[in-house]
Design goal:
Strand order of the largest sheet: 1-2
Shape: globular
CATH architecture of the domain at 3-197: Orthogonal Bundle
Protein name: ABC transporter
CATH topology of the domain at 3-197: ABC transporter involved in vitamin B12 uptake, BtuC
GO biological process, one term: response to zinc ion
InterPro entries: ABC_BtuC-like (IPR037294), ABC_TroCD (IPR001626)
CATH superfamily of the domain at 3-197: ABC transporter involved in vitamin B12 uptake, BtuC
Family: Belongs to the ABC-3 integral membrane protein family.
Strand content: under 5%
Pfam families: ABC-3
Largest sheet: 2 strands, antiparallel
Length: 320
């Protein structure tokens, strides 16, 4: 029997494919605005939503989406309006979110430490058909936002002041990006877990940044890397008894190290070529300047020194 003969592996691979696409698609914007650890804070808040789902005997994924979205909006509003820095706000949500999740799961009649472990670190066998339907809908929504509004989101992440001058709704786009990040965290928690989801949002972007120079190319390569490590890591766990989240993240980090080692000589060669190209255009030398002295009396008053006009001599173009 092959890996695709088992229904739970079919669901796991499909979930890994969707997570590999959505996590880097959002992570590239978070890295651009230097909020790489935002996924960690949202993940801790989402744990409270998971506990709330067990307590109310409803879908933990849906309650996690709602709770994480509220937490992401609070993070953005605190960052924008409050005197408290974004790092402090994230720290408060870190501790409060995970404490609330543990408390609610313990209070739930069907909650247990096993359920908590599956959401913290991911579990292939726990991905149900209902989870796949919810993950698919959420993944499509995330990709629609990140790809359809990529120019506006890039402008806001790059320079908010410039975005305001151009007339973009900066606050609305910031809140939309925060909610999209929250949805992405809940999409990925069934595969890599809430504690490792931020790594899948950041590490593929870091790999792509070493190979590309433009934002569009970085985003495209990050999605490719995310899909590659997610699907391969999930398939590897079928043959090796290992947790899927840790396997996927370690594959991504290994690829980051490998690309870094291979890209260093290439970057040095590019830097030398750029320096050589810049050195081809030499600044004007003193020999290239012609000094013309005017004759006394020609345009000057008697008794005055002749004026001196300095004109650059024409420089012949070097043969190519």
């Amino acid at each position: 029997m092959t890996i695709l003969d088992f229904p739970f592996m079919q669901r796991a691979l499909l979930a890994a494919l969707l997570v590999g696409m959505t996590a880097p698609a959002v992570g590239v914007y978070l890295v651009q605005r230097r909020q790489a650890f935002m996924g960690d804070g949202i993940g801790h808040v989402a744990l409270t939503g998971v506990g709330l789902g067990f307590l109310l005997s409803t879908s933990p994924v849906l309650t996690a989406v709602l709770t994480a979205s509220v937490g992401a909006v609070l993070i953005e509003l605190i960052r924008e309006r409050s005197r408290v820095s974004g790092d402090v706000a994230l720290s408060v949500l870190f501790y409060g979110g995970i404490a609330g999740g543990v408390m609610l799961i313990n209070l739930a009649p069907e909650g247990s430490n096993a359920n908590l472990q599956s959401y913290l670190f991911g579990s292939l066998t726990s991905v149900s058909p209902e989870d796949i339907r919810v993950i698919t809908i959420l993944a499509v929504a995330v990709l629609a936002v990140t790809l359809g509004l990529r120019r506006a989101l890039f402008t806001v992440c790059q320079d908010e002041d410039f975005a305001r001058v151009t007339g973009l709704p900066v606050r609305a786009l910031n809140l939309l990006l925060a909610v999209t990040a929250a949805v992405t965290v809940t999409v990925a928690m069934r595969v890599v877990g809430l504690l490792l989801v931020s790594a899948l949002m950041v590490v593929p972007v870091a790999v792509a940044q070493q190979l590309s120079r433009t934002f569009s190319m970085t985003a495209a390569l990050a999605i490719v890397v995310g899909v590659l490590v997610s699907v391969s890591g999930t398939a590897l766990t079928y043959y090796v008894d290992a947790p899927p989240g840790a396997t996927i993240v370690l594959l991504a980090i290994g690829l980051f190290v490998l690309v870094g080692v291979l890209a260093t000589p290439l970057n040095r060669r590019r830097a030398r070529r750029a320096e050589a190209a810049a050195g081809e255009v030499d600044p004007p030398r003193i020999d290239d300047v012609r000094v013309d002295a005017e004759v006394p009396g020609a345009g000057t008053m008697a008794g005055q020194a002749p004026s001196v006009v300095v004109r650059p001599a024409p420089i012949e173009e070097a043969p190519r």
